[in-house]
Design goal:
heterodimer; A: about 325 residues; mainly alpha; 2 domains; 12 helices; B: alpha+beta; MetI-like fold; 3 domains
């Protein structure tokens, strides 16, 4: 298991490096952002670009880029737009909390609701309740988050006036009014996640409930509830837990759409700004970030299977 | 020994005879009908009620993309500058008073002066903007020490009629042409001119044609509560001859236009001018969006593009994925490992990043849609190749493959004639689930404005929704209709795909639950 983990991590780092290099070259191939005419910082910026290795081969530029990251955590300086001249890494770190908090709330709500709905559906399989839950799950998975956002904003925020339209500005994340203003994005984000958990739990649990060891457990004299909790749930969790871990890693990446609609000052909106404003250093850093989050989430899921259920040693001996 | 063999080979044909030519065959014939793989899948698919319903809804939504642009009197390029974000309206249904398709918007806290203003429009143009008075409240306000009762109303106002009359500068030819149109159809477009001096110097509101108390346009009614017209009779400033329909009460002295540097300026009723321009009355089943496009048509056009695009992308991805996965699964070993690494690296790149980089690099060369297509193709085939690979691993060591190999079938033949057909069910299912995911990504990216396909496609559902989102509170229909269409499309596609997956999945065969 240990060797497998190390192998996966090394492979992941290699993949990350290759992707970063590809994106880096593609970004550096583009003409750098033009400076406004008569800009007083022109000299400094050109010197900085010279130091970053523009005009040198891409391999050397990439080397400089990596060296700066590893020695000083220097991801470059924003080229254009709102954060002109500021350290990219600093801005990124300042944006991270908003995204993480909103997503964390959303997951904390989604996990229990999703799993409970899934258990109910599986236990009452083929009853009207199961059909209702399954249909609803299908609908929730299919409908995109911005439709929920619209429904919530229009009916709850505008027609009823119960919740604010946008998230409050500022960084006091733990006040009550801030929490209230976070509810709309949290709900919009949660719908899909809840549906995902419900579906996984239901599918897994129905399968486990029909397996032979459940029959054995009942034959031994366990009640249905005992058998379900002690035997079925544990086995069902083998699949559900890794996806929870995956979701937890994913909270950092946030959602571009939801962050834009509800004006959440998070990583997603930063990314959108950098795309629209052609802010390449920012874009590059966030690309690396998103790639890394995706890769880490996927290996955490894979490895946690092995830790949770020792029978599954994926890829350890192929 | 060899001699014997030779002899067997040369037995003359007539010496052969049927062993059991007249004997009764005791083997029973099958009295069941044979059923092909696909017929079997179809049978199981039909058992799944929700998927069948989804399939019909899907069919309807696809037909919509063909029929809606054909029914709608508008093209996607038709953008009306005045009827922007206007709610659904069809005149023939609106006049029945059912409360639907009447172009109504609710306006709160309208005072008496405003109600009179709407009435004024109705009296002059014949199109009364007030559909219904939903309620009124009375508040007592102290003005200069005197207690006055101020009434305020909640009105439902027809957004199309409420534009009423506007100033328009026309060339002499156009002015004459509108008169010809008026004479032919009896629809009055041009209304008598009102001099600003007569209405306390108001120049920015063409809808005031009556005597007013102040420069805010508060109407001064006569004893019977009627408006007092103040149309101009000043022949000196008249712009062009007017020989057409005149308003009631006109003895031929009212002027209908004034001179304005080589052209004429006049007051036109926009609703009727619209009929003059388009030949029809406004016919917006779903209303209009923020560009003044017909939503009914725009959704059809946008969705048609999305569907075709997704179909195209899926076809390419499935072909690449199938071949890639086939090679991986069939050869295995080092080739599998290397190809797997490549797929791994590609699948690690977030899709948004791919789209943006392709957009930045390729959009100038191959166009927005082209670069978008490449972005989808770059990573889209990976899921498919994984599926095919799994199927190949499953089938490649089975007896029928060995048999075919023993008979001398080439690798290519083995892969595509013997193993591949067995994986077809999986591939069809995956296709049915790939299309909605492509549509969904495309819509999200156009919604965010990262990709703008409007030039290629006319519009897309994502673009329509992002336009609707901006004016969500005032005209929710602009978001509502595209959102409903898109949600239905996604739900029915996914249900349909799930039904297919269950139907093609051999492990559910015979399981009746």
């Amino acid at each position: 298991m240990f060797r497998y983990t190390i192998k996966r991590i090394l492979l992941m780092l290699m993949t990350l490096l290759i992707i970063t290099y590809m994106c880096f070259v593609l970004v550096r191939m583009l003409p750098p952002a033009e400076l406004p005419p008569n800009d007083p910082h022109k000299v400094i910026i050109e010197l900085r670009r010279e130091a970053a290795g523009y005009n040198k081969p891409y391999m050397i530029q990439f080397g400089i880029y990596l060296r700066d990251i590893f020695t000083e955590f220097d991801w470059g300086v924003s080229d254009v737009g709102r954060y002109f001249g500021q350290e990219v890494a600093g801005i990124f770190v300042s944006k991270l909390p908003a995204t993480m908090i909103v997503n964390l709330y959303s997951i904390l709500i989604s996990i229990p609701i999703g799993i409970i709905l899934g258990i109910v559906a599986a236990l009452k399989k083929n009853s009207w309740l199961d059909h209702a839950i399954s249909t609803l799950t299908m609908v929730c998975i299919s409908v995109p988050s911005f439709v929920y956002a619209f429904v919530i904003q229009y009916f709850i925020s505008y027609k009823l006036g119960w919740l604010p339209f946008l998230m409050n500005a500022g960084t006091n994340y733990f006040t009550w009014s801030m929490f209230v203003s976070m509810i709309p994005p949290i709900i919009s984000l949660s719908m899909g996640v809840i549906a995902g958990f419900t579906r996984t739990t239901r599918a897994e649990l129905t399968e486990v409930l029909t397996s032979e060891f459940m029959l054995l457990a009942r034959t031994k004299g366990l009640t249905r509830a005992q058998a379900t909790v002690r035997h079925a749930m544990k086995n069902c969790m083998v699949v559900v837990l890794p996806s929870i871990f995956g979701q937890f890693i994913g909270i950092m990446s946030g959602s571009l759409i939801i962050e834009r609609i509800f004006a959440i000052p998070g990583v997603g909106s930063l990314y959108l700004d950098s795309i629209n404003g052609r802010d390449y250093p920012m874009f590059m850093m966030l690309t690396v970030f998103y790639t890394a989050v995706g890769l880490v989430a996927s290996i955490v899921v894979d490895i946690s299977y092995g830790f949770i259920d020792p029978r599954i040693r994926m890829g350890s001996r192929k | 020994m060899q001699n014997n063999n030779m002899e067997f080979e040369h037995i003359p044909q007539e010496k052969f005879e049927f062993a059991q030519f007249d004997a009764k065959i005791h083997d029973k014939k099958f009295d069941t009908k044979t059923r092909s793989f696909f017929a079997d899948a179809l049978l199981r698919f039909k058992k799944n009620k929700s998927s069948v319903i989804a399939a019909y809804i899907l069919l309807f939504l696809i037909l919509y993309t063909i029929i809606a642009p054909a029914i709608s009197p508008y093209e996607i390029a038709d953008k009306d500058p005045m009827y922007i974000n206007s709610p659904p309206f069809v005149q023939s249904i609106a006049e029945k008073g059912w409360g639907i398709l009447d172009g109504g918007v609710v306006m709160d806290s309208q005072n008496d002066a405003q109600v009179n203003f709407w009435k004024g429009i109705g009296v002059e143009t014949g199109y009364d903007p007030i559909i219904d008075i939903l309620g009124s409240t009375e508040t007592t306000v102290k003005i200069r020490g005197k207690e006055t009762v101020v009434k305020s109303y909640a009105l439902e106002v027809n957004k199309y009629y409420s534009i009423g009359v506007m100033y328009k500068t026309l060339s002499y030819d156009e002015f004459a042409d509108i008169q010809r149109f008026q004479n032919e159809t009896g629809i009055q477009v041009i209304f008598p001119y009102v001099e600003p001096d007569a209405i306390k110097g108001i120049t920015d509101n063409a809808n005031i044609w009556y005597e007013v108390k102040d420069n805010k346009g508060t109407a001064k009614l006569d004893d019977n509560g009627n408006f007092v017209p103040v149309y101009s009779t000043n022949k000196e400033i008249e712009g062009a001859e007017y020989n057409s329909i005149r308003v009631p009460g006109d003895d031929g002295s009212y002027i209908y236009s004034i001179r304005k540097s080589g052209a004429v300026s006049c007051r036109i009723s926009y609703y009727n001018y619209y009929q003059y321009l388009n030949g029809t009355e406004p016919f917006y089943i779903f209303g209009t969006n923020s560009l003044g496009q017909d939503l009914f048509n725009a959704i059809g056009i946008g969705a048609r593009f999305s569907l075709l695009f997704a179909l195209f992308v899926s076809a390419i991805n499935l072909s690449i994925g199938a071949v890639y996965g086939a090679i991986q699964g069939y050869y295995g070993g080092t080739i599998d490992l290397v190809l797997d690494r490549i797929a791994d690296v590609l699948s690690g790149v977030p899709f948004t990043v791919v789209t943006i980089l392709f957009q930045l690099h390729l959009a100038q060369k191959v166009g927005t849609a082209g670069s978008f297509l490449f972005a989808f193709v770059l990573t889209g085939w990976i899921g498919m190749s994984g599926l095919t690979r799994k199927q190949f691993y499953r089938f490649k060591s089975q007896e029928f493959v060995f048999a075919a190999r023993t008979l001398g079938a080439s690798d290519k033949r083995l892969m595509f004639k013997h193993i591949f057909p067995n994986a077809l069910g999986t591939i069809i299912t995956s296709c049915a689930l790939t299309i909605p995911s492509v549509i969904s990504s495309e819509t999200s990216l156009t919604y965010l404005g990262i990709i703008n396909l409007s030039e290629v496609a006319g519009t897309t559902v994502g673009t329509l929704m992002s336009q609707g989102q901006t004016s969500m509170t005032t005209s929710p229909h602009a978001m509502f209709f595209p959102a409903i269409y898109f949600s239905l499309l996604m739900i029915s596609f996914n249900l349909f795909g799930n039904g297919l997956r269950d139907a093609f999945n051999p492990s559910t065969r015979g399981v009746e639950d």
